[in-house]
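Reading group handout, session on sequence-to-structure problems. Before we discuss, look at one worked example. The prompt was deliberately terse, the way you'd type it at a terminal:

> structure Transposase, IS605 OrfB family

The input record follows.
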Amino acid sequence: MELVVTAKIRLLPTEAQHLQLVETMQAMKQALNFASKVAYEHHLLSSFKKLQVLVYRDLRELFGLKSQMACNVCTIVAGVYASMKSNGERTLAVFKKPKLQYSYNRDYSFTKDGQMSIGTLNKRIKMPFLTKGQERYFDGSWEFGTGTLVYKKGKFYLHVAAKKVIHPPSVYQHVVGVDMGMRFLVTAVDSRNRHLFIKGNHIQSVKARYVRLRKELQQRNTKSAKRKLKKIAGQENRFMTNVNHCVSKALVQFAGKHSLLVLEDLTDINDTVCVRKKDRYVRFTWAFAQLRSFIEYKARLHDSHVLAVPPAYTSQQCPTCGFTHKNNRKKQIHTFICGACGYTSNDDRVGALNLRQKGIEYHHGVTAQA
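And the output record:
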């Protein structure tokens, strides 16, 4: 299985090099908007080769771009219009921020003396860089791809795509059942009977605050209110992304290396559940798919594997006697009481226990075939 991640590398340019990078990014922004206008005037041209024929020479002469930079401009613009066509949009794409992409070993590379060589409008420049927290990507087993230059708060970063083929282990040291929800973002139980509970109450309160603020701004219906609406939408998305990163990291660290994490397959879950009207926004904007994707790639980095199983009856089946009935689960008090044997526990914990059992059965089947 191929794993692709983004390594974020902090660049340490001198003052002169800093100015060169800023100049290159400004030229790139102008070139992108120039190529975008040409593509728009040619009926939203989304073919890289056709766009390159139209604008390549102008990109070199008018904006001073190097050959590979000019090609990257055509690739970016053509890709944007291809995406817009698929979404039914027919507007002019405007690049408010420069998007400067580099090709590995063409526009950027790592030198033998531990520096980075990166292209600018004039020439390639060498500078030191920091890899704090990214050291694993430089052990020689990762293959580097396209890099994107990012300028944030006066600092330069290069976001590099790194990929590696990872083979899941045939034998797992631990099996972890993971129940995901809104009251508890994650409830996990491993094969050593250790437990992990990550509450989601504070997430619901933050989302409720955004709901109230959004309602107030929509009622105002002014230009400033619309700008604020757009701003808080980005804030909410970044908040949830950060939460999912933190939750997935904590879960994978709890599981440890060479573990099998068993999750419910919640694909299209919003199409099948009934939710009270007052809870619909919070429920339907819960980023379960993003959380699962974060858990999957972080698990691979720890030589672990994620198994997604059908969610049916995982919170209704007794983990002790196997009796399954919807009345076993008391949703109002978040408690599970078995109608047959009387086993009592937290309902989310019961879901995690049943998922763990499915993982143990899967693991036994895999090892038996081996």
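Points for discussion. First: The mean pLDDT is 88. Second: Residues 174-369 form a domain with the Nucleotidyltransferase; domain 5 fold (CATH 3.30.420).
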